[in-house]
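Technical annex, item 7. During the second reporting period the consortium partners agreed on a shared format for inverse folding records so that results from different sites could be compared directly. Each record opens with the tokenized structure and is followed by the designed sequence. A conforming record, contributed by the partner at site C, is shown below for reference.
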């Protein structure tokens, strides 16, 4: 792993425009479970039952009780880990421009990254399904489920459920930065969910080097990524930043 960390530090030091794509694995060390694999949320719940827009519309009480309330507690307590801090440091060092994240936890912004594309929306806001009023999640009273807006409408998290479109702006911008970057860090994603998993492909086809960080191989490994650094994102990012600081 150390050789690959050195290699990544060299590749990043020589880069002009770095983008990162992150998934649930980037937030595991902050106490937020991933979706797939051992201990993943989808081991406990059927995603089509608790994370598809049709199931939310059919029974918002069930989805609020089963998934959303748990997520709120976990996200409320979560703090940025060394992966988030490392990406913020790479921005400070003038290497990293943009983070495309599939995560809805807001931890990249909390760590200090200033250009974060929330590809699957954010849990920091709820919106009313009647009048579309947006309210910060921390201001929404969830003592009654489902929580309701002053207009009587039901609140839903401002995340993208399965069966919903990716917001056009987020999709378009992600595609843009993927074509422009010369190095893409792909951190903690299984590469299963589309269209997010297309972004490393777009970057690769535009000539970028793809560096993957994950304790396990994924669908991208060997196909799209130039190399995989097998390890937890926090440790690996901490190692990479330390190497870059030594080189600079
Ligand atoms: N550091 C880095 N990666 C890790 C770590 C770690 N400490 N621990 C686990 N991983 C990796 C796993 O090996 C796996 O490849 O993180 C990945 C998590 O994969 P998923 O749970 O599938 O998460 P993600 O790819 O973000 O899912 C995409 O699916 O359910 C939907 O909307 C949800 O945004 C989510 C999307």
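Designed sequence (site C submission):
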């Amino acid at each position: 792993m150390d050789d690959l960390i050195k290699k990544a530090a060299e590749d990043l030091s020589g880069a002009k425009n770095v983008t990162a794509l992150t998934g649930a694995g980037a937030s595991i060390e902050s106490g937020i479970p991933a979706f797939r694999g051992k201990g993943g949320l989808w081991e406990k719940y059927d995603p089509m039952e608790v994370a598809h827009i049709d199931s939310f519309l059919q029974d918002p009480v069930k989805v609020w009780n089963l998934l959303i309330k748990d997520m709120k507690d976990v996200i409320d307590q979560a703090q940025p880990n060394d992966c988030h801090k490392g990406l913020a440091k790479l921005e400070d060092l003038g290497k990293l421009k943009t983070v495309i994240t599939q995560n809805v936890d807001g931890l990249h912004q909390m760590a200090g990254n200033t250009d974060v594309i929330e590809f699957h929306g954010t849990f920091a806001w709820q919106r009313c399904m009647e009048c579309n009023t947006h309210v910060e999640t921390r201001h929404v009273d969830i003592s009654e489920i489902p929580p309701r807006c002053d207009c009587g409408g039901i609140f839903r998290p401002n995340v993208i459920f399965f069966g919903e479109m990716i917001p056009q702006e987020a999709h378009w911008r992600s595609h843009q930065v993927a074509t422009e970057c010369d190095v893409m860090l792909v951190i903690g994603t299984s590469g299963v969910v589309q269209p997010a998993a297309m972004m490393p492909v777009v970057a690769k086809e535009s000539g970028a080097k793809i560096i993957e960080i994950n304790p396990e191989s994924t669908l991208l490994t060997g196909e799209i990524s130039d190399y995989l650094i097998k390890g937890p994102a926090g440790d690996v990012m901490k190692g990479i930043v330390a190497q870059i600081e030594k080189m600079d």
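The longest helix spans residues 60-77. The mean pLDDT is 95. All partners now use this format for quarterly exchanges.
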